[in-house]
User: Which sequence fits this backbone?
């Protein structure tokens, strides 16, 4: 039997509602925008920068979808992931792109979603296509997807870094790099009328320089939020690495002029003046890669460690980041003599291919002399693969010309020391040489 | 993306249907007879035969006027029950759909597919719950409110009540479908940019052939799997004797015309970089096996995942190695053999592979307007809607509203792709680890499918139970309609016309196959039902 009257029951319900409302209001009251306003959850959100507006741009569609799904967001995301995998396996690219967009609407701040699917589009999907222009389209899709991720997660350095990686490494180092780099400035899509895709390259820059800008953004974001991709000292060097890649790419395009020299000079500034002066935390306290003796002493004093410890950790970080090599290479390549050496070695090859053996021999010899001077000035480069490869290839060609002309080899020649020191690499380089000149 | 419509065997389907319905009728009749004898003794058979004959008489005396009156009543009830509120949901969905599906704009051909699929899927999924609820709750609500009593006391026969309900609900659904279809059509046209509308909102009419392969030695065999998880396509090696051989039937000048339009969608697989700047080269060769004449046409570069259209003139010419001069050939006179055209497809790049599946090459007949295919796809949705109404009304004749809803919903759920495939895998023994009961046991005991279960009573018990369960699943697989047959959006989304043989015929036959027995079941259930027991 119910002992309460209807009115009493209603009063009890009302009291229970009021009592339950108190903790709900205490916990969930929204913030007014002023510091410290709102319920406990709003305050915590403010304290740890977890509010939607502090993480990046707010997408109303995403917010609507998340709201409408109530507690079923996880299930919906899982189903969409399964669908995306199936669409990729069955090569249903249009549907895959749409599904991926739906996933990020549900999980806009889950960085791994952006990283996984961005990679999927730029690397895996693009590789499924045969025409390079089609591949390039999907590389762009991947980069645009990452860019969208940076808009939604403006504080996350990882996503800026991923954009930089696609613009730099994917476009500049793929098998299709020559065409990709060309397309980055001259998009194959007729609607861009020979101009770059404005969404990806509004300033019409070289891909490595565009990547450099994005890596700067990544570093800026990293000033405020820790990244979880790699060691910090490595993460911060990417703008300088991009400049180096840019200068290197000009050489890969056989450009050995003032532009290339300026690019290398710019890169040399980046290493000691920008990256080299950054501070990194090591077990031996703060480390600066471009340190003078005074810097070492000052930092040792500040961190209360002995000078040897500071010196040890500075050297160790320099090794880990390969700092000295990059710095030296940039400096060496920016010298006019080195650029001239590159140019002469390239001209020697070109003349050889044109059948002008005598002229080729003279130019090659001059280039080899310059290369030798370079190695004498920077002996640390004598153990670097690329420098060795260029030197040995030049010698091989020069020797081959002698062979074709039926002339004996001189007893001494420039780069002889390099030749003798790297006999173990000779078979590999000989093979590459034979392939390049069609020698059986 | 796969798109491989399989031809429908009409005669075989009718025969199977007749056997199934006859068996089911015989079984039902026998059960009724036994039940009647048990309850009414020697009068039992007379009662059964009496009901059967009166039922047949009712069916013979159907009145179009009464049917129309009952259908009108059903329509009014549906409107009163706010069935048309579905338009609100539809409107909201289409107002905001652009927010969710506006990507791949740089590739309009891909985006058009997404738009068309979205519209057709949204219409199907919005109409489905409306007609399901209306048809399952109509009769039980009438019985509950006793409004059916006023109908059955009129001259209207119960078969007319069942059929009138079905017609009424189908008309309501038709109205909703037409409005949604028109709005959807306008929406697609507005979404697809004007400059590409002509190119991508089309309705291609394909004629498919049969595909076989020659291996690298030129012997009949199969293609190569290049490591794809998806084995839809097989690959032939370039610059070898490997070929894909298509045979097209019924190729005549009257059917095809003086220009043979071939459309292909091959896939490339490179084992080395090759020439990065160009696609792989593909060449067609026409072959007449009777005269052993082989004529090749100029090679072309493939463009993957998009249309590669080649137009071949009726008059072909080729350099003849024997006479050392150019010779002319007529496609129909010299190369088509008794109406069969054989096309050999090869890749010309050494070390590269060309992937192909049956629908990757077809003869393209003159295109039809987009609305033709779109309307046919809507007709597919209409047939699905009609089937759901038939099932819903039938179920509501013998069970109450919630149970009928659950029953029909289960049919719809189990009749769709994933569950049908699951049932087929279970029946076909493709699942490792035995049947459902054995798998359940393995799950509990943490035994993976490779672990053998020891011989003994437990294994015998499991196998016996599994046999029963699998037979039950087999029966369900036969009874539950194949709802995948109604999904024609892949045709229209891929820019194809919806064909009679592969799409419309199976869906129409499926609906009819269920409508006829359901009408009988519904009628006899309502006839024998005690209306007073609500």
Assistant:
């Amino acid at each position: 039997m119910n002992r309460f009257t209807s009115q009493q029951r209603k009063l009890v319900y009302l009291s229970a509602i009021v009592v339950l409302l108190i903790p709900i209001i205490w916990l969930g009251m929204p913030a007014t925008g002023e510091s410290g306003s709102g319920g406990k959850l709003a305050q915590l959100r403010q304290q740890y920068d977890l509010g939607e507006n502090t993480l990046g741009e707010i997408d109303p569609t995403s917010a609507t979808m998340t709201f409408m799904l109530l507690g079923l967001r996880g299930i919906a995301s899982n189903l969409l992931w399964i669908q995306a995998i199936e669409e990729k396996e069955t090569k249903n690219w249009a549907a895959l792109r749409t599904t991926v967009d739906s996933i990020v609407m549900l999980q806009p701040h889950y960085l791994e979603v952006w990283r996984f699917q961005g990679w999927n589009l730029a690397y895996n999907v693009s590789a499924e296509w045969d025409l390079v222009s089609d591949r390039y389209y999907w590389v762009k899709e991947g980069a645009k997807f990452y860019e969208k991720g940076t808009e939604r997660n403006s504080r996350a350095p990882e996503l800026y870094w991923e954009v930089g990686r696609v613009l730099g490494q994917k476009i500049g180092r793929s098998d299709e790099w020559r065409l990709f780099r060309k397309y980055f400035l001259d998009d194959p899509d007729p609607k861009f009328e020979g101009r770059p895709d404005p969404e990806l390259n509004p300033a019409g820059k070289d891909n490595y320089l565009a990547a450099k800008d994005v890596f700067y953004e990544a570093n800026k974001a990293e000033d405020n939020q820790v990244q979880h991709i790699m060691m910090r000292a490595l993460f911060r060097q990417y703008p300088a690495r991009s400049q180096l890649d840019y200068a290197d790419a000009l050489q890969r395009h056989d450009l050995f002029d003032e532009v290339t020299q300026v690019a290398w000079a710019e890169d040399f500034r980046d290493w000691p003046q920008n990256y080299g002066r950054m501070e990194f935390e090591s077990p031996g306290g703060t480390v600066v890669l471009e340190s003078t003796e005074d810097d070492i002493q000052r930092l040792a004093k500040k961190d209360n460690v002995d000078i040897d410890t500071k010196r040890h950790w500075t050297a160790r970080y320099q090794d880990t980041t390969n700092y000295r090599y990059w710095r030296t290479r940039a400096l060496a390549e920016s010298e006019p003599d080195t650029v001239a050496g590159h140019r002469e070695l390239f001209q020697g090859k070109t003349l050889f291919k044109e059948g002008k053996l005598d002229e080729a021999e003279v130019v090659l010899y001059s280039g080899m002399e310059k290369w030798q001077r370079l190695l004498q000035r920077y002996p640390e480069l004598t153990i670097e693969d690329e420098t060795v490869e260029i030197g040995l290839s030049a010698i091989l060609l020069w020797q081959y010309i002698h062979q074709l002309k039926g002339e004996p080899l001189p007893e001494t020649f420039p780069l002889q020391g390099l030749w003798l020191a790297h006999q173990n690499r000779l078979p590999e380089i000989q093979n590459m040489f034979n392939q390049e000149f069609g020698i059986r | 993306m796969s798109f491989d419509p399989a031809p429908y065997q009409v005669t075989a389907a009718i025969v199977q249907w007749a056997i199934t319905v006859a068996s089911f009728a015989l079984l039902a009749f026998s059960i009724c007879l036994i039940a009647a004898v048990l309850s009414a003794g020697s009068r039992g058979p007379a009662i059964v035969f009496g009901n059967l004959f009166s039922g047949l008489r009712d069916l013979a005396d159907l009145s179009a006027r009464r049917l129309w009156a009952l259908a009108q009543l059903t329509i009014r009830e549906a409107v009163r029950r706010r069935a048309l509120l579905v338009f609100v949901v539809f409107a909201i969905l289409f107002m905001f759909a652009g927010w969710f599906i506006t990507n791949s704009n740089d590739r309009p051909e891909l985006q058009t597919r997404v738009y068309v699929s979205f519209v057709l899927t949204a219409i199907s999924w919005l109409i489905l719950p409306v007609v399901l609820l209306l048809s399952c709750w109509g009769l039980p609500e009438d019985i509950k409110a006793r409004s059916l009593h006023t109908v059955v006391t009129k001259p209207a026969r119960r078969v007319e009540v069942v059929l009138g309900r079905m017609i009424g609900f189908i008309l309501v659904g038709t109205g909703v479908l037409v409005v949604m279809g028109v709005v959807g059509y306008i929406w697609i046209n507005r979404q697809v940019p004007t400059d590409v509308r002509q190119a991508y909102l089309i309705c291609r009419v394909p004629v498919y052939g049969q595909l076989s392969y020659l291996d690298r030695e030129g012997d009949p065999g199969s293609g190569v799997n290049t490591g794809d998880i998806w084995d839809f396509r097989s690959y032939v090696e370039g610059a070898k004797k490997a070929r894909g051989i298509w045979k097209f039937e019924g190729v005549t000048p009257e059917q095809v015309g003086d220009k043979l339009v071939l459309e292909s969608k091959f896939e490339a697989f490179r084992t080395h970089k090759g020439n990065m700047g160009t696609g792989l080269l593909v060449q067609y060769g026409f072959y007449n096996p009777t005269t052993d004449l082989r004529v090749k046409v100029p090679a072309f570069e493939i463009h993957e995942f998009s249309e590669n259209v080649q137009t071949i003139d009726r008059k072909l010419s080729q350099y003849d190695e024997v006479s050392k001069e150019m010779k002319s050939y007529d496609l129909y006179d010299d190369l088509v053999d008794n109406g069969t055209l054989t096309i050999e497809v090869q890749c010309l790049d050494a070390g590269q592979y060309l992937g192909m599946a049956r629908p990757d090459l077809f003869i393209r007949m003159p295109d039809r307007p987009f609305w033709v295919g779109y309307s046919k796809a809507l007709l597919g949705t209409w047939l699905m809607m009609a089937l759901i109404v038939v099932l819903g009304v039938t179920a509501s004749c013998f069970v109450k509203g919630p149970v009928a809803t659950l029953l029909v919903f289960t049919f719809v759920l189990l009749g769709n792709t994933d569950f049908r495939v699951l049932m087929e895998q279970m029946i076909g023994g493709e699942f490792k680890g035995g049947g459902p009961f054995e798998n359940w046991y393995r799950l509990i005991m943490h035994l993976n499918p490779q672990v053998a279960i020891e011989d003994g009573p437990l294994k015998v018990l499991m196998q016996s139970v599994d046999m029963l369960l699998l037979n039950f699943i087999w029966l369900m697989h036969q009874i539950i309609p194949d709802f995948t047959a109604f999904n024609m959006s892949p045709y229209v989304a891929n820019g194809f016309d919806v064909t009679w043989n592969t799409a419309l015929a199976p869906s129409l036959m499926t609906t009819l196959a269920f409508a006829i027995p359901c009408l009988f079941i519904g009628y006899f259930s309502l006839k024998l039902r005690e209306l007073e027991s609500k």
Remarks:
- The interface with chain A takes residues 1-2, 96, 99-101, 103-104, 106-107, 110-111, 113-114, 117, 229-230, 232, 267-268, 270, 273, 276-277, 279-280, 302-305 of chain B (CB under 8 Å).
- The first helix of chain B runs from residue 10 to 40.
- Chain B has a mean pLDDT of 86.
- The first strand of chain B starts at residue 202 and ends at 208.
